[in-house]
């Protein structure tokens, strides 16, 4: 009877050990994948200092565009006013996105590139409006 009990106890210990090893191995793999994913995500995040410099630059560009717009408003046709209105809506949207990004304190490189591209597009439209003056 003692032998059966000892064999049964050893069987339980081995089974429990094997079970623990399997579970631990799977969890370790999942943990490794999560860490790898987080590291990749952090790589994609911009450096805060760079983000602040980019935001400052975009804000200065917006300020210059607003000054140009105020000078252009004197003698505008209704078509030009419509273009100006659309431009102001786009600028407002851009400012809102910039504000949300600043509130978070971080931005992905992709997000910053998108905002910069939108800014370039607005500047091109502004140059076109100045040419139609």
Description:
The chain is mainly alpha-helical. It has two domains: 1-44; 45-131. The chain is built from four helices and no strands. It has helices at residues 2-44, 48-72, 78-104, 109-131. Helix 2 packs antiparallel against helix 3 (78-104) and helix 3 runs antiparallel to helix 4 (109-131). It starts with a helix and ends with a helix.
What features would you highlight for this structure?
133 residues, mainly alpha, single chain, elongated, 4 helices
Summarize the structure.
The protein folds into two domains: 44 residues; 87 residues.
Helix and strand composition category: mainly alpha
Percent in helix: over 70%
Count of discrete structural domains: 2
Provide the β-strand percentage band: under 5%
- Based on CA inertia axes, which overall geometry fits? elongated
N- and C-termini, Cα separation? 104 Å
Radius of gyration: 30 Å
**pLDDT average, as an integer?**
76
Q: What order do the SSEs take from the amino end to the carboxyl end, as H and E?
A: HHHH
Number of strands: 0
> What is the helix tally?
4
Regions with pLDDT < 50 over 5+ consecutive residues? none
């Amino acid at each position: 009877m003692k032998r059966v009990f000892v064999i049964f106890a050893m069987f339980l210990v081995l089974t429990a050990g094997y079970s623990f090893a399997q579970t631990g191995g799977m969890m370790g793999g999942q943990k490794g994948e999560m860490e790898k994913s987080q590291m990749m995500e952090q790589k994609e995040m911009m450096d805060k200092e760079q983000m602040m410099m980019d935001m400052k630059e975009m804000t200065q560009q917006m300020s210059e565009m607003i000054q140009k717009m105020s000078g252009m408003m004197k003698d505008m046709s209704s078509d030009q006013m419509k273009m100006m209105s659309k431009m102001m809506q786009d600028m407002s949207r851009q400012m809102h996105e910039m504000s949300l990004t600043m509130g978070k304190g971080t931005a992905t490189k992709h997000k910053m590139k998108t905002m910069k591209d939108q800014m370039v597009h607005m500047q091109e439209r502004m140059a076109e409006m100045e040419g139609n003056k």
